[in-house]
Each structure stands twice: as structure tokens, then as C-alpha cells.
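Q: what does this look like with zinc ion bound?
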Amino acid sequence: MSEKILRLSQIVGQATAVKILQAALPPSLPGSGYLFAGPAGLGKMSSAMAWAQAMFCVSRQGHDACGHCGPCLKIANGSHPDLLILAPTVKSKKVKQDIDIDSVRGLIERLAYKPYEAERKIAIIEDADKMNLHAANAFLKTLEEPSGDTIAILTASNPSRLPATILSRCRIVRFTPAPLGEMVDYLTRKLGIDEKRARTIAVMSKGAVGASDPERLKEDIELRAMALEFIADAKRAPTAKYFKQARAMDKEKNRETVDKFLSMILSLLREMAVMKFTGKYDNVVNVDIIEGLDKAGRGYSGRGILGLASAVEELMAARSLHVNPFLTVSLLLLEFRKD
Ligand SMILES: [Zn+2]
């Protein structure tokens, strides 16, 4: 079980956050309220667990948990009595229920006891931005009147949903997309993925380790390749090829696909426009396909690319009015063949 928990030094791409957390380990005095803020998949929860482990570890090595002592193993097994975790109930695959006032009250009650084993208790509220207003207000008192032996860690991907009163009581630790190089390193070393593919996965996961599962990104990667091919070949390739594609997307289960396809085309066009107008390549997000982008861009003028980008935006707006995918792709093809 213990290998499931990462140690602070194993968190990928969050050097700044990890440094802040390590600096607050005893003998330093940690604050009483922390908010781990940043998009999903960046390792906020793993970092909270790793920090708790480092905090409770009885044979800490430098600024990290040992991973083997009693408290470390208890955290890994989910059985440490001084670590309390509150998270939204997962309703279905994507929908998480709000955290209600009763569960927050339950947590507060448990926080009223002295720590059992450690010097302090740690309460983690995962997706704290899912607390409804009553729940948030109930928890505010805990932050306003810290007992001295409790650390509250809130994680949130939308911190602006939290009341300002909560935000002002927390030290904010920001989680930002991992640098490309670190993601590639992680994917090649830890997962044994070859470098070319690792770069693609790093780009497509937007620097989020939690979103870097190659299987789950497969569809997006294919769709981006299709979008690039469309931009490069739309003028020349036989129309029938696209009608076939369009028909495939028209099937009920693929309706989302056409929207994704359009937004991929749009983002690639925007990158091509920037490359064309500035002659600079250093801010390109899709670095792993930069040669393909450059090559595809040669078939269009800068102005032409901008025109296409706004045509795609119009089609995206039309999609929200339920214009069907087949018609959408057909219109898209016409736009690309205009000039
Ligand atoms: Zn330990």
C-alpha cells in the first residue's frame, strides 16, 4: 500500500509549492490554514498527503518523510488517527456532490479532540470549493479560531468559489502546470514512454501529471493529428475522405468529438498565426508537432489563417445551436477551400 503515497520529493513539476511546504515542516511552525489552489491533476491532493506524512514522520530524512516508519505507513494505509480527510461524494463519473454542512460539522467535532499520536492534527478538505455556503461558513470558525494543534489544508481548482473570508484566512499555495521538461522526464523515466510520445503526452495533458494517462489521452492525440492533417490537406485531399470523417462524427455518441475537433483546429490555427506573424516559435504550446504546424502554415497567408480562425469560431457557435456535425464539417471544408 505504501507505494501509493508519494513523498514530497517525488511530486512532479511543483518545485515552488513543495519548497513552501518543506519550509513549514517542524521545527518551523506551520500555519493553521492552507489553500492548495490550481487546476485539477496537478498533484494538490498528493502533495497534501505527502506533506501530512512528512509532518507526522518520526524519522524524517531532511525535508521529507521516510516512508517506512509507523506513522508513514499509517498515512499510506489511510489509518492515521490524526489525519482527517473530507471530500465530496462522487455522484457519477464526472459529477461530485457538494460538501454539506453536516459533513463539515462532523469534521469539526472530530477536530475538537486532542491529537491521538502526533503533535497536531491535519484536516484535509479535498475540493473545498465544493463546500456550499453554509458548510464554508461553518468551517470558517475553525480557521478564525485555530486551536493551535490543527492544520487545515483545503484543495480547490476554483478558489474563487470560496468565500473571501475563507481565502483571507489561508496561506495560498499555488499549483501551476508542470514544466514540459519535467513532464517528459517523468513520463520517460517513470513510465518508460519513448521521448517523442512523452512530449506529445506532456503537451496534451497541459502539464498535469494526473491527466497524463496515455490511454485516456489517446482520443485527443488522434483528434489533434486529424486536425493538423485537415489544415494541411483540406485544399487538396479528395472531398469524399472528409465526408466519411464527417459521417463518422455524426453518429450520436460522437457528437462531442466534432466540438473537440473544431476547437483543436482553432487552437492550431492560432498557433500557426502567431508563428507566421511573429516568426517566433518559443511560445508554441504544441511543440511536439511544431514542424508539422510550420509546414501546414506554409499553404496559407497570415491573413488567410486569421480568416479561417474566425470562420471556425462561427462554426463553433453554430454547433452550440445544434447544427449537425456532418453539415459543420462540410461547411468547414468549404471555408478551407475558399481561397
Ligand atoms: Zn516516516
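The mean pLDDT is 91. The longest helix spans residues 255-278.
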